[in-house]
Amino acid sequence: MNAEIIAVGSELLLGQIENSNATFLSSELSKLGIDVYHHVVVGDNEARLEKTVETALERSDLLILTGGLGPTKDDITKEILAKVTGRELVYDENTEARLHAYFAGREKKMTENNLKQALIIQGSYVFPNDHGLACGMAVDVSGKKVILLPGPPTEMIPMFERYTGPFLQQELHTKDQIQSKVLRFFNIGESQLVHEIDDIIESQTNPTVAPLASGGEVTLRLTVKGTDASENELKLEELKQKIVSRVSPYFYGEGEAQLHGIVVDRLQELKLSIGAAESLTGGDFSSTLTEVAGSSSVFKGAIICYSNAVKEAQLSVPQEVLTKEGAVSKRCAELLALNVKKLLKTDVGISFTGVAGPDSLEGKSAGLVYIGIAVNDNVEVFKLQLAGSRKNIRERAAKHGFYYLLHELSKEKVDE
Amino acid sequence: MNAEIIAVGSELLLGQIENSNATFLSSELSKLGIDVYHHVVVGDNEARLEKTVETALERSDLLILTGGLGPTKDDITKEILAKVTGRELVYDENTEARLHAYFAGREKKMTENNLKQALIIQGSYVFPNDHGLACGMAVDVSGKKVILLPGPPTEMIPMFERYTGPFLQQELHTKDQIQSKVLRFFNIGESQLVHEIDDIIESQTNPTVAPLASGGEVTLRLTVKGTDASENELKLEELKQKIVSRVSPYFYGEGEAQLHGIVVDRLQELKLSIGAAESLTGGDFSSTLTEVAGSSSVFKGAIICYSNAVKEAQLSVPQEVLTKEGAVSKRCAELLALNVKKLLKTDVGISFTGVAGPDSLEGKSAGLVYIGIAVNDNVEVFKLQLAGSRKNIRERAAKHGFYYLLHELSKEKVDE
């Protein structure tokens, strides 16, 4: 089965936003073993969208269209599909009910055009939208399958993950199963990682190994194809062990695991509470940690000590440290970690101080970062020299914080 | 003149990387007044690439292909173009010289396949690659223009900016200039905004009005075409005034302006310092505010009071308030804003408390948010009921914080 992904929206052709939907869907379809042969982007233009759909129906078994399901006049995807396939547009009761409930709940009045979002192509299978108003749908067209999804990734991605993905899985009913395992690494470059396991990558055919670098991390996707699920799983596990044994210091988790999620799990296991003192990162560390549902069981709070006055008054960093060694110093990081731990009565304290840039600070150049980690009575300070934009430096500093924290916590014992 | 952007590379169809080249090129072409009607992504497959190029030559005046110019076997773009257009591939002397110089400089020996990167389609105009090895080129094909650019954005973008852009400008020799203005709105849905100005959108031809919703915001892009730049600017400004007068409460800025950037500017104008007390948002507000370079001139710090213990100990919220009215209450938001302002000795205090979910808290359901804003002696609390995932609720709460803050600050006078 080969697929084509069609994004509808003039804003894409104007370069206002990226077609990240195509990237997400391609990666999901490849997991399902569906080959994607074409991405197409077309504007909110009836003639060109119609032609695009006709061409796609000739050459592809599966069409996924994103965008153009909204309430405004330039949202025409359903209308064109109905025209090309010679079907009626009808109201979907459930979606209509959701619309009314949505506006009732918000004491906003629903404008007439909103009802458009409850229209579906007759005979189509509906995907509910848990994060927005426009429903998605799947419809069979002369042996081909056409799927319509909303444009905003915040609506499309959860809809695909919860409804469309499983729906496709069922439709495929292939005997071969594609299974994959993603291994996650931090603090090692893609080229170095590939270099370390080059022979493994070369010699592998099933499972295959595909490296990918993004957001300062490197992942390896192991993909296996076979009829026996448990045998597939076994092959993946064997290969994983083989790889991890080579580069264990950098390996931190599998699948969707994220450094901050693992840190929360680990703190919960160890029954340790944590507090943070953030200067450089300005709240980025705490904000990321508290993205994890249930983080409140371990995270008590933080002091964002952006100004030296706050470092002094709230976190008792002596003035002479700030004047002599500076706010960006090993000593300051150490004190911030120890004192925030004491102030918030936690078992662990972590601190971030550094120069985010663009300008230098205290005669120190952008990218210099100190991360202090105090666990019980022991405190460590890690020094980094990061490159990149202000945003990158802050984000990567926070990520390194989670990474070093994991290393420090690995020294702790779970008390029974 | 209408254009089509064709990206060549299987990694795009596997979802390993995003087609950011198409986004960049679209935005550049629209500045040149060239309409982009199609984006296409096709893999490193001869038959499909050939068909894609043929289709594009039928429907588009300008083709820009990115990728597939490298030294490896799966780089086939030039070969296919030569085949479709019936031309020879010949070596470009300058590019060949650059290749030899590159490898000489690195004491690496050049492998035979590297020479492939000096091959150009006979009769084409060459764009040098200042950041890599594969040159770009432009070739005329039966009245159409075909441009080939390297895939890596680090090579393609500088090549376009320095060589391809100016080349196109010359080719166009149009007197018409395209100018556009982006108006930014918050706290109003796309459908409601469009509803409010429907008649304006309908009646406009030059400038045109295009709405776009993303990240909880709505933007309107006003685009005008004309030979006289200042007259264009005038038309845009007139239309802007007409629109803003209709929906002024929701309008907050133009172009790349962002709520948090405007808040920092406004605080600097007013010479007001700010501190935050973040429970619900866990540092998201402060982290966003401190993304702005120079924010340290107004932002002193914050207390992330995730646990009630910290709300009590650091921000003096009386226990009876937490037990009777709860941490998620108007009163708590009020006290947090007032007390963080006092604690950190700032002019403005802002607080966030609420239920991020997924679970309810204190019998209050996910999405209930209170934002407290204390400016000098005056304190306001804003109540919100947000929908969506935990992440969305937190992010949108922080954004609303900036939005309400802007409204409160608009009441303040700049003291001369």
TrEMBL record, chains A, B:
Q: What is this protein called?
A: Putative competence-damage inducible protein
Family (UniProt): Belongs to the CinA family.
Checking HAMAP family in the record gives: CinA_B (MF_00226_B)
Checking InterPro entries in the record gives: CinA, CinA-like_C, CinA_C, CinA_KH, Competence-induced_CinA, MoaB/Mog-like_dom_sf, MoaB/Mog_dom
Specify the domain of life of the species encoding this protein. Answer: Bacteria
Write down the Pfam families for this protein, in alphabetical order.
CinA, CinA_KH, MoCF_biosynth
Q: Any idea where the MoaB/Mog domain is?
A: 4-170
